[in-house]
Sequence to fold (203 residues):
Amino acid sequence: MQQRFAILISAASLVFSVACSQSDAGITMAVKAKMAADGTVKASEINVDTHNRVVTLNGTVGSRVEKERAVTIARDTKGVTNVVDDVVVGPVPAATTGSYGEKAEDTAEQAKTENAAHEAKVKTEKAASKTAEVITDSAITSDIKTKYLAERGVSGLDIHVETNNGVVTLSGNVKTKAEETKAMSIARGTHGVKRIVNKMKLG
Fold:
């Protein structure tokens, strides 16, 4: 009777183990156990997460060999349908004390600071460039309109001026060809103007 009970317990344990190994938690445990037993992979440096039997690996390892071995172990684990490899090869974050660990942390922190400073500089330059462009276009338009209003023979109220990246578009009605020519000449002689687009009409 005792022997039969022991057999039943063993069978139940086996079924439970198989079922467990197929669950996300069971797969995660199995992958971690394999990595811990492997001589190449430092299991403490790799995080294992399983969702719907898809295993995601992340962390930092010291070599490409270790990275590839970790992926192989995960892929070969029973129940795993896919592996997402987010493992990075680089300086391993130091878990030990001493100058080497402090140096590695300082280097990583310095790299982060430099990257942040570079990104901020690029954003500032882009913003400054965009602002300068808007001010320049606005200034060109204002300058031309002011000249038209001060110039005899040019109807500053009837000529519309629009500037985009230094390209000035003139539209509206002019009374004579001479007025049209003069308006274009004034615009062309304004500082910052790259090109004139004439859409003015006689009438």
